[in-house]
Write a structure and sequence with these properties.
Elements: H1 13-23, E1 26-27, H2 28-38, H3 47-59, E2 63-69, E3 75-81, H4 83-108
Antiparallel strand pairs: 1-3, 2-3
Length: about 110
Amino acid sequence: MAGDQTEVLRGTLDLLILKTLSLQPLHGLGLARRISQVTDGTFEVKPGSLFPALHRMEQKGWIEGSWGESENNRRAKFYRLTARGRRQLGEEKENWLQVALAIGKVLEAT
């Protein structure tokens, strides 16, 4: 499956965004690139999914955005994780680990 692009599973986009922003503030395109880079291109987050998610997460107070200049001198909105977002990241991570464990049990069942 290496090299194949996979649609991000519903419910995992928040986790990917929160975790990535926990490492450093990024603008939208930089965030999508970083997720693709870390997953070796397996997950390609499209703008049509990314920007509505960022807007929703900003409304919930999980992230904050501020305008700045990107590496190619273009105006871009940079996002950073808030304290509420760090707490949400912990919850999302715990939920994902529970789901992964349950799926593992199903796959191992005889």
